[in-house]
Structure formats: structure tokens, C-alpha cells
Amino acid sequence: MDNYKSPELILYQHPLASFCHKVLIALYENGIRFESHFVDLMLEDVKTELYDFWPVGKIPLLRDLTLDKTIPETSIIIEYIDLMYPGKTKLIPNDTNLALLTRLWDRFFDLYVSEPMQKIVLNQILPDGDKDRLGVGKAYSRLRISYSMIEKQLESKKYLIGENFTMADCSAIPALFYSDTIVSFRDHFPKLTAYFELVLGRDSVKRTLSEAEPYFSMYPFFEKIPKRFLKDRI
Ligand SMILES: N[C@@H](CCC(=O)N[C@@H](CS)C(=O)NCC(=O)O)C(=O)O
Fold it and tell me: Which end of the chain is more exposed for a tag (fewer CB within 10 A), N or C?
């Protein structure tokens, strides 16, 4: 039986989606029980249910049935679970300055790694006439600048903001997992590479990636996903 299932929390998500990984890692870090509702954005009925709660239509989306609350936006979902369902990993530090740094690096990864990564991935599946050459060029250079900034941030730190794993790391891991398949950081950014290897070892991350694995072949840069993340290691 799956320990993580409970009728109280429902997470609308898709196991391939990087922003869903961000929240899944946070939930798994603290063994928070929830029920998963897969959202296939191609299927109208699932989309309708999601749009009823949050017309923006982005995933993931959390529903807390105990309080009849809808919680959208990954950073807000993580803030919410840290507050309402605290566990061994304090995702938002109690110290005000560390909390600010956590939020800053969470924003940084969403806006300056995930966003350009998504731009490049989306562009890959667009028909030729709709491709955005200029925007994609900017996205590639943004990723390189971001990697240099992360390398500097990690100079004397174990995790992104210090000794402890936080929301900033939840945000970083999926962003880096996919961005590395587009602009690899492994040859030029040793601290970033070492950090990424460290976080890949966490159970929450292993579980998230193994649940994503059956869907990896749908990813436009599938051939760039390192074979060690694939079950059949083709
Ligand atoms: N700012 C949002 C971003 C979420 C997001 O972009 N989710 C993607 C999946 S990774 C999505 O819903 N894409 C479908 C769409 O944009 O219609 C958050 O942090 O929750």
C-alpha cells in the first residue's frame, strides 16, 4: 500500500512536468500523504476540472480538502505545506535572512533557469513557422549566465543557501535536470555539478525521477537525458 495516499490533499500534476517535480520533491521530503490526480493537458475533462479550481490552468495545483482550499503556484504550495504540514525538512528556514535567501533562489530558478529551459523545450515542438529564434537565442544565453551565478552562489555551500536543504533546492533540481539536457553544465561548472550529484542522491529526488521515467520518451530532448536515469538504459 502506498503510504503517501490520503484523501486530504490532492495534487493535480503530471509526472513529467518540471514544476510538478518541484512540489513532489517537497512533499516526499517530509513524507506528506496526498492523492495524485494526473493532468493530461490534452484531455478536456481533466482540464475542465483543473480550470474550475484555477482558470490559469497551470500545474501543479494543490487542493486541501480538510479546509476546502485551493493552493496554486509551486512556491506558494511549498510555503503552505511547510506551514500546515511541517516535517523533518524545514523547507522555509525560521531565520528571516535565510528565509529571504531561500525565496530569492527559489525565484531565481523559476525565472532564470526553468523559464528559459521551458522556452527552448516549447520552441522545439513548435512548427517551423511559429519558432521564436530571437527568444530562444536569449534563453540559451540566460541559461549560461544563470549557471555562472549558481556556481558562485555554491562556492562555500552544501545546498543552495547553506547547510540545509530548502525550497530553493526543490526549485533547483528539476530546473537543472532538464536544463542540463539543453546546455550542459557538467564541463564548466564543477561546484554546480557536484551539488547536482549530491541532491540526486536524496530519496525524494530519486522517487520523483523514477516516477517520471516512464514518460521521459515524450520529452523533446529525450536523447539527451543521461542513460542512468532510464530503466532500460537503452
Ligand atoms: N508559475 C507556475 C508555473 C507552472 C508551470 O509552468 N507549469 C507547467 C508544467 S511544468 C504547465 O502547467 N504548463 C501548461 C500550460 O502552460 O498550459 C508555478 O510555479 O506553479
Answer: N
Residue pair 143/150 in contact (Cβ under 8 Å)? The answer is no
Kind and range of the H or E run holding 44: helix 44-53
C-alpha of residue 155 to centroid of ligand 1, in Å: 31
Lining ligand 1 with CB less than 6 A are 17-19, 41, 57-59, 73-74, 110
The SS3 call for residue 85 is coil
In the chain, the domains with their CATH numbers are 96-202 (1.20.1050.10)
224 three-state secondary structure? helix
pLDDT band at 2 (very low <50, low <70, confident <90, very high): very low
Dump pLDDT digits (tens) for 85-103: 999 999 999 999 999 999 9
67 class by beta-carbon count within 10 Å (0-12 exposed, 13-18 middle, 19+ buried): exposed
